[in-house]
Amino acid sequence: MSTPLASGDPGRDACLSWLGRRLEADVRRAPDLLWHYTDAGGLLGILTHERMWATQTSFLNDSTELAYGVGLVAKAMTSYDPSYLKEGTARFLERLVDRRRAPLAGRLEKKLDVYVTCFCADGDLLSQWRAYAGRDDAGGYALGMGTDPPLQGWPPHTPETHDVALRRVLYDPVEQEETCHELVDALVPLLDADPRDVEIQRSFTRALVDGAVELASWCKDPAFEEEQEWRIVYVRTNDAAKLPVRHRMARGLLVPYVELELPWPVEPLQGHLPVQTIRIGPGPAPALKQRGVETFLANFPHLADVRLEGSVAPLRL
Predict the structure, then answer these.
(1) How distant is the alpha carbon of residue 129 from its chain centre?
(2) Residues forming beta bridges with residue 53, ordered by sequence position
(3) Cis amide leading into 149 (omega within 30)
(4) Residue 190 and residue 21: Cα distance in Å, rounded?
(5) CA distances (Å), 57 to each of 7, 62, 143, in order?
(6) Which ranges constitute the DSSP H helices of 79-197?
(7) pLDDT digits (tens, 9 = 90+) for 188-233
(8) Is pLDDT at 5 greater than 60 in this prediction?
């Protein structure tokens, strides 16, 4: 996560420390492979150009997810016990989440230009095949990408690339609440040290907004838990050299997206996407689908060891 806060800013430091603990926990829980479901056109584009499309979150299957995450942060703020705070701190927090004035919501709205590339921990999930089966008569595909060394292929900070990082999506309301409170608990003492200091107020607010944007990008309604989603998150407003926004057509809409280059850091796939397995989704012609993928992969020496697997999902197209 990059932020506009100055170096050594206490709010920024506290927010990054909170995020670092979160990323470390994700590393420990990462499966060996994460799966990106796509159709034949997506498969061709990803393997040919070695870029992943990150879609603006407003256009995903859960169009309310950013609002859902922001609501979690607001709830954590309002549930903070003011009796443990200085009077000035309690008043500042109350004003920040005031629904009539909505200063926090206004700041967040300016920052919520978030793009994500979605992955699934399950490489043969019926609901995902259903989602992609309708795009092509022959059904979809799933690209299994390696996470060993853990998540290092998509680092949160590299001087050569744009600022992206892999996140595990949270669905459990208890875990969501705990994570929100961890952010708020890390920041409120900084404000409480001197709630009348304008610079401290600004530092606190900026760090809270950055943390809220993070939370909003990987907290989803429990109804979507089956997806077991992980995602690469790119906050465009935090990027000094912003990636260009492109558009594709889907469901009669012009859907904004950005292209992410996500090279693997180690051999044998160093400099390439870490594609290790391709699963052929259920469809009416599985042998033809596999043969097509085999002949396509033959054009790319670095993909010579990619495994091809079939689906056992009970889906008929």
Answers:
(1) 21
(2) 259
(3) yes
(4) 19
(5) 29, 8, 21
(6) 87-96, 103-111, 126-133, 173-193
(7) 999 999 999 999 999 999 899 888 888 888 888 898 899 899 998 8
(8) no
